[in-house]
Design goal:
The complex is a heterodimer of chains A (about 350) and B (about 240). By secondary structure, chain A is an all-alpha fold. Chain A has a domain at about 95-270: ABC transporter involved in vitamin B12 uptake, BtuC (Orthogonal Bundle), CATH 1.10.3470.10. Chain A is built from 14 helices and no strands. In chain B, strands 6-7-8-3-9-10 form a six-stranded mixed beta sheet, with helices on both faces. Chain B has a four-stranded antiparallel beta sheet with strand order 2-1-4-5. Chain B has a domain at about 5-85 and about 155-235: Rossmann fold (3-Layer(aba) Sandwich). Chain A: GO terms for molecular function: transmembrane transporter activity.
Chain lengths: ~350, ~240
């Protein structure tokens, strides 16, 4: 039984390399196309001119270069937020063993958004601008919702759809509270509304740094957790029988997921469905739940958000919120998933 | 006499302190034997198996594994020494190959490698299922995968909570073959069961769980008849 040595499977590795390079190439092409679209209405040659100026070291030289710079920051943030949402969604789906989990659908993002609004409303003037508050408030809100979800999931057990429904209800309640708060003080909160509504159009270097920091912490931890994570996915008894601390694994996965979702809300407001989509899209390309799968999930998240944002700012006269664009595709997909999961059960 | 591999002496165990499900449990499992736990629903067979695996700490008494107190062993040492087949059906979206890889603690990478190694020749119908997802298989097929996973964990003691669940009749025979193969290799098997065929043909020894404790009973047709009648005091005969 112990005589067989693990053989590196060359075919699997070739396949993994091919899908990783392919997906990264698609993301690169999509970001490339994205630079040429936007509300400023630059012609392709103007964009190229701006790019040349930037590469030449004069980013603020002309209006073209300035616009191109803004677009690059926005796309860069889109890539980071997408990767982060994808990873967050994968962790949430794993921790709850529920392919329907997503930080937006379950109210985690809503809780983060509400917390930011509360700080803006009752906090000391100017605190929203502070980076520390920008991270701490959504994190606290997200963790509070997570605690509620844990209580709910303990009561519901393994009914995936009932759990999703409870999460959706929670999400609606948080949104209602948010709307009421906004209506009481439109003057103070107008900036918060825009933040929450518009997605990536408030892109900034600070936002990119916040999301990047979250990923820099989360990715190595997740990569080192693959063994317990996969064992946990099979079941509590299965994992515990292999020496995995089930409680610690579950809490760690959830905590990292919420940290990522909180940094995303801090940088770009509530963006739904990217966390739901990404692991499923990655699953189309690879069947093993390994490190390749995790990287693919992040690449898919980045692609989904960049494409969504491209649609958001080119489909209409004025910009459509990113969350609206993703909901347009996400909602029918969720319905299809629900039908499918019902059939599997 | 060969020293016991797993020993419970005067163990009391349960989920709420002060309300033990079982008390005064003294059991000794020797290498290479198959032992069956029988008794009515809710008497504590699963609780006992979970205690033997170290999932539950005894309120009183001691569980020793190869001479060491089980509670003092690291999760990794336990995972390499005593394996547990859960009654739960995973329904997880994960490949069978990965389940084999995880269970063999990295020794085997796939179902194919399992086939190529020295393994019990059972459940041939699932042998080509390495690239399938667990949740796309029937409960019975998943059960066979989990049984193979327990074997590739290659522990000294194999604990099985109702291993016959969801298995068809030919597979039940193969399960018996699997257990005999493991015991012939010096492994000890402890299983809980409600299956008449298993009780009649498989175990070297029989323990009846009931009346809040455990008693050894002879593996005779009288015992089987008493079990069918639901007589909890069967072992006093």
């Amino acid at each position: 039984m112990s005589s067989v040595l693990p053989v590196p499977d060359a075919e699997v590795r070739r396949h993994d390399a091919a899908v990783l390079v392919g997906t990264a190439a698609v993301l690169l092409v999509v970001t490339g196309i994205s630079v040429f679209f936007g509300s400023a209405g630059l012609t392709p040659s103007e964009v190229l001119h701006g790019l040349r100026l930037m590469i030449g070291g004069a980013p603020m030289g002309t209006p073209e270069a300035q616009i191109v710079m803004l677009r690059l920051v926005r796309i860069g943030l889109g890539v980071l937020v997408g990767a982060s949402l994808g990873l967050s969604g994968f962790l949430l789906q794993t921790a709850f063993r529920n392919p329907l989990a997503d930080s937006y659908l379950l109210g985690v993002s809503g809780g983060a958004q509400l917390a930011v609004t509360l700080v803006a409303l009752f906090g000391v003037a100017g605190t929203v601008a502070s980076v520390r508050v920008m991270i701490a408030a959504p994190l606290a809100g997200g963790l509070l919702v997570l605690a509620m979800l844990l209580i709910i999931s303990r009561r519901i057990g393994h009914d995936l759809l009932a759990f999703l429904l409870s999460g959706l209800a929670l999400s609606y309640m948080l949104n209602a509270l948010y709307s009421i708060l906004v209506s009481t003080r439109p003057d103070i909160l107008s900036s918060t509304i825009f933040w929450s509504w518009m997605g990536l159009n408030r892109a900034s270097g600070t936002g990119m740094a916040v999301v990047a920091a979250g990923l820099i912490v989360a990715v190595p931890v997740v990569m080192s957790l693959m063994r317990p994570l996969r064992s946990y996915l099979v079941g509590d008894d299965f994992a515990q029988n292999l020496g995995v601390n089930v409680r610690t694994t579950r809490i760690l996965l959830l905590f990292i997921s919420v940290v990522l979702a909180a940094t995303d809300v801090a940088a770009s407001g509530v963006v739904g469905f990217a966390g739901l989509f990404s692991p499923h899209l990655a699953r189309l390309l690879t069947r093993r739940t390994d490190r390749t799968f995790v990287v693919l999930t992040m690449l898919m998240g980045a692609t989904v958000v960049v494409v969504g944002d491209l649609i958001a700012r080119s489909v209409s006269v004025s910009e459509v919120p990113l969350n609206t664009v993703l909901s347009l595709f996400g909602a029918p997909y969720l319905i299809w998933l629900s039908i499918k999961s019902r059939r599997v059960m | 006499m060969i020293p016991a591999v797993l020993e419970l002496s005067n163990v009391a165990v349960g989920y709420v302190r002060g309300e033990p499900v079982l008390r005064n449990v003294t059991i000794s499992i020797r290498p290479g034997e198959a032992v069956a736990l029988v008794g009515r629903n809710g008497t504590g067979k699963s609780t006992l198996l979970r205690t033997m695996r170290g999932f539950l700490a005894p309120f009183d008494g001691q569980v020793t594994l190869k001479g060491h107190p089980l509670q003092s062993m690291s999760p990794q040492t336990l995972a390499a020494t005593v394996g547990f087949l859960s009654p739960e059906i995973p329904q997880a979206h994960i490949l069978v190959d990965e389940v084999i890889e995880l269970s063999s603690l990295g020794r085997l990478k796939s179902m194919e490698q399992l086939e190529a190694s020295d393994h019990p020749d059972v459940f041939p119908e699932v042998s080509g299922f390495g690239a399938r997802f667990l949740d796309e298989m029937s409960s019975g097929q998943q059960r066979k995968i989990m049984l193979l996973a327990l074997v590739v964990q290659w522990t000294d003691v194999l604990l099985m909570d109702e291993p016959e669940l969801h298995l068809d009749l030919p597979s039940l025979r193969e399960l018996h073959g699997l257990i005999s193969w493991a015991t012939a290799k010096g492994k000890s098997v402890v299983l809980s069961t409600h299956n008449l065929e298993t009780i009649r043909v498989l175990p070297d020894r029989l323990y009846v769980v009931g009346d809040k404790t455990v008693r050894e009973a002879p593996r005779t047709e009288e015992t089987v008849q008493a079990l069918l009648e639901g007589d909890e005091y069967v072992s006093r005969a």
